[in-house]
Amino acid sequence: MPVDKTVDLSGRQLRWLPLHVCSFRELVKLYLSDNNLNHLPPELEQLQNLQILALDFNNFKALPLVVCTLKQLCILYLGNNKLCSLPLELRLLQNLRTLWIESNCLQCLPEVVCELSLLKTLHAGSNALRVLPAQLRCLQELRTIWLSGNLLSEFPPVLLDMPFLEVIDVDRNSIRFFPSLAHLPGLKLVIYDHNPCRNAPKVAKGVRRVGRWSEETPEPRERNTLLYRNRFCTAPRPLSLPPPRW
């Protein structure tokens, strides 16, 4: 058993998990990133003290159900795989605080994610998401949501009903118009760059915006037009002076 209760087998080109790792029943952290894994042994269920499991950068087409038996998991890394869905058994991970599912093949956010009641951070960027489920508002502990690089054509309406959100990232989508976010009292940062938007989202004082016109008012064209009128159209004309007499 490692003294620090951590096993890191990242980047070993593993095709299967060595079974002796499952004998370390007090293990807290297991890193299996950047391998060639596409399944896990049922013996993994013995690691009931595991809190962090990293399976990112592998070849999983489906999440092994044995992962859903690890009920003490707080952080689960599943990014950069080939996942098209998540199993309903994921709801058993009621201690999960952080879920990384970025860079997969998800066309919609699995509704089972909305049952992870203690979830605080959700990384779902670089998928093919077009909408978010209305049930997402049930995640009242959620503070940060990362949706960069998806196929959102409008700002997800459900996020407007989540006043506890602190960070919203919708960078690199296809959003053309942003509603006002000024009513979200917990919001601290909104990232909306690289969208074909016609406006910047209105936010409350002190909220940082990252994107086009982030330092301007939400209607930059109207503001610029007003400035032009004030400067050049309504400025007082200089008094005409009589020609000098010589």
TrEMBL record:
<dbReference type="Pfam" id="PF00560">
    <property type="entry name" value="LRR_1"/>
</dbReference>
<dbReference type="InterPro" id="IPR050216">
    <property type="entry name" value="LRR_domain-containing"/>
</dbReference>
<dbReference type="InterPro" id="IPR001611">
    <property type="entry name" value="Leu-rich_rpt"/>
</dbReference>
<dbReference type="InterPro" id="IPR003591">
    <property type="entry name" value="Leu-rich_rpt_typical-subtyp"/>
</dbReference>
<dbReference type="GO" id="GO:0005737">
    <property type="term" value="C:cytoplasm"/>
</dbReference>
<keyword id="KW-0677">Repeat</keyword>
<dbReference type="InterPro" id="IPR032675">
    <property type="entry name" value="LRR_dom_sf"/>
</dbReference>
<keyword id="KW-0433">Leucine-rich repeat</keyword>
<protein>
    <submittedName>
        <fullName>Leucine rich repeat containing 10</fullName>
    </submittedName>
</protein>
